[in-house]
Amino acid sequence: MSARAHTDDHRPRRRISGVGRVLVFVYGVLALAATGRSVFQIIDRFHEAPVAFSLSALSAVVYIVATIALVAPGRVWYRVAWITISFELAGVLIIGALSLFAPEVLGLHDIDPFGRDATVWSVFGMGYLFIPLVLPVLGLFWLSKHHPAADASDASDASDASDDGARS
What one-character-per-residue DSSP string does 92-116 give? Predict the structure, then answer.
C-alpha cells in the first residue's frame, strides 16, 4: 500500500457533500442577506422599530453561526449546528406568528413582509420566499442523517473491510 493511500484512509471524512453543500451555500447567502439587511436597518432607522431590527441582527448571527457549524468538523460543531438551527426554527415560528397576530409587540407598523420594518423572519420568512421557514427543517433533517459518530463508524468499518481484504 502506498504512503498516499495509507494517509487517505485515516483522514476524517468530510461531512459536507452533495445536498450538504447546497444547504451550506443557502445558509451562507442568508447570512449575508440578513447581515446586510440588519446593518442597514440599524444604521438608517433603528429608532423606527428597534425590536424588529435587533431581531434582524440576531437572525444574521444565527445564520452566520449555523453556516460555520455546518462546515466545521467535529462533534462540538455538530451540536452547535443542532442548537443554532433549532433556535432558528423556533425564531421563525415565534417571530412569524407574532408578526401576523401581534405586530405591535415587535414594533412593526404592519404585516407587510416586504415593508420598511420587516425582519428576515417576519411572516415566516415570506419576504425571502419562505426559505427561512423551510431551511431549518431541511437542516435538522440533514443533520439527523449525518451524525459525526455515524460517519466515524462508517469510516472505521470501511478501514476494517480494507484491512480484512489486505489480510486475505
Answer: HHHHHHHHHH-GGGGT-SS--TTST
CB of 31 closer than 8 Å to CB of 58: no
CA distance 61 to 51: 15
Among 20-24, 45-49, 114-118, 133-137, where is mean pLDDT lowest?
Answer: 114-118
Q: Can you read off the three cell numbers belonging to residue 152?
A: 466515524
Please, what sign has the CA dihedral across residues 90, 92, 93, 95?
positive
Check: CB of residue 151 under 8 Å from CB of residue 15.
Answer: yes
C-alpha cell at 144: 439527523
- For 41-154, where are the E strands, in sequence order? none
pLDDT tens-digit map of 12-51: 555 567 888 999 999 999 999 999 999 999 999 998 889 9
Question: Distance between CA atoms of 55 and 99, rounded to whole angstroms?
Answer: 12
**Amino acid in the structure at residue 21:** R
C-alpha cell at 101: 397576530
